[in-house]
Design a protein that fits this description.
alpha/beta; 8 helices; Rossmann fold; single chain; four-stranded antiparallel β-sheet; six-stranded mixed β-sheet; 36% helix
Length: 254
């Protein structure tokens, strides 16, 4: 079932004499339960695209539908409620509150919704179990590794069971072991919880965990490939092939 519809969106910056087309007439759809990666070189527009979907940025033209809701038209309280109830966002730099424990950081989203304490406790412990961070729930961010912090941030993003989880370079600050563990947890959430995930990444290995990859070049949709029945390794090789077509070196641009 179709969950997200991106319809001819454009995002421009600057004025007539210095106009930058960060997103240039992009359209695609995402089904409920899909895990989609968005790849592109630095400056290609991939993060701007994600910011438009999350309503951090306003589109210059076009429409974005979540279900039958046109989120490009939301304002005020309706926009606040949409961000709180429908979206989970995972940032590259974690964005945890240093004065709160992992438990409190994860629980915050439900606390804002005025959920009962027992319900919050059960939800936090379940999310922590799913992401393998039960042992750090009473720790503060400075007491955790980068991988643990990112999994806490991921637990915070899924705790409200949002319609859509958006992740911006979630493995960018992690070592290879922590990145692999996080991506395996993403796959678990996708397969077991039917979580719909859109992830921006520059890394082919990270993208190979998704079921579909969209490639952005100069603000436009350049190509897309689906994993289908391929193994992750086979899908990784397909991604590398497209990276080559984009004119990038495997070790840098993508």
């Amino acid at each position: 079932m179709e969950l997200l519809k991106i319809q001819n969106i454009e995002k421009y910056y600057g004025g007539k004499l210095n106009l930058t087309k960060a997103v240039d007439d992009i359209s695609f759809k995402v089904d409920e339960g899909e895990f989609v990666a968005i790849m592109g070189a630095s400056g290609s527009g991939k993060t701007t695209l994600l910011n438009c979907i999350s309503t951090i940025d306003r589109v210059t033209a076009g429409h974005i539908f979540l279900g039958d809701m046109d989120i490009t038209k939301l304002k005020g309280k309706a926009l606040t409620n949409f961000r709180r109830d429908k979206l989970g966002f995972i940032f590259q730099d974690f964005n945890l509150l240093d004065t709160l424990t992992a438990y409190e950081n994860i629980a915050l989203a439900l606390s804002i919704q005025n959920r009962p304490a027992k319900e919050i406790d059960e939800a936090v412990k379940l999310a922590a179990q799913q992401l393998g961070i039960t042992e750090v729930l009473e720790k503060y961010p400075y007491q955790m590794s980068g991988g643990q912090k990112q999994r806490v941030a991921s637990a915070r993003a899924i705790i409200t069971h949002p319609s859509l989880i958006l992740a911006d370079e979630p493995t960018g600050a992690l070592d290879s072991k922590s990145a692999k563990l996080l991506l395996e947890r993403f796959n678990y959430l996708n397969s077991e919880n039917n979580a719909t995930i859109i992830m921006v990444t520059h890394d082919s290995f990270t993208a190979s965990y998704a079921s579909r990859v969209l490639f952005i070049k100069d603000g436009k949709l350049f190509n897309e490939i689906s994993r289908g029945d391929s193994s992750r390794k086979e899908f990784f090789n397909k991604i590398i092939d497209v990276v080559t077509l984009l004119g990038g070196d495997v070790s840098d641009a993508l």
